[in-house]
Design a protein that fits this description.
Layout lengths: L1 E5 L5 E6 L12 H6 L6 E5 L4 E5 L3 H14 L4 H32 L5 H8 L5
Antiparallel strand pairs: 1-2, 3-4
Helix pairs in contact: 2-3
Length: 126
């Protein structure tokens, strides 16, 4: 199985081949795991011949990052609390848009990957 780490524009940033155990289990490469801040759960989506595994981000997971950013910007006291509430309210719609975009991309992917593999290894077929 090939695992690909994609950026927001869905360009491949890194790709690795991983093994699937007899129990149908995989190990996510540590670099990917850390880069995506995966904690305990991931969402698993199947398309034509691909499995998409993406982290599930809970709203609370962003709270610490939001606070750090706002403190770095100099917010304090009630101003910090007000700005935190405004920023946190924007997170859920942004995540929802990202999920919708990923779903559209997954559905529009007609390529099973077999053609790409055949092109890559075509010189070895003889």
């Amino acid at each position: 199985m090939t695992v690909r780490l994609l950026n927001k524009r869905s360009d491949i940033m890194e790709s690795r081949i991983i093994k699937v155990s007899n129990k149908r289990q995989i190990t996510i490469p540590q670099k990917f795991y850390e880069k995506l801040n995966i904690e305990q759960e991931v969402e698993c989506i199947i398309t034509n011949s691909e499995i998409i595994i993406r982290p599930i981000y809970r709203e609370t997971e962003f709270a610490e990052e939001i606070l750090k950013d706002l403190i770095d910007k100099g917010f304090e006291g009630t101003q910090l609390l007000d700005e935190f509430k405004r920023t946190r309210a924007k997170v859920k719609p942004a995540v929802r848009r990202m999920i919708e975009e990923a779903d559209i991309l997954a559905k529009s992917s007609q390529d099973s990957g077999d053609d790409k593999l055949n092109n890559i290894f075509s010189d070895l077929e003889d």
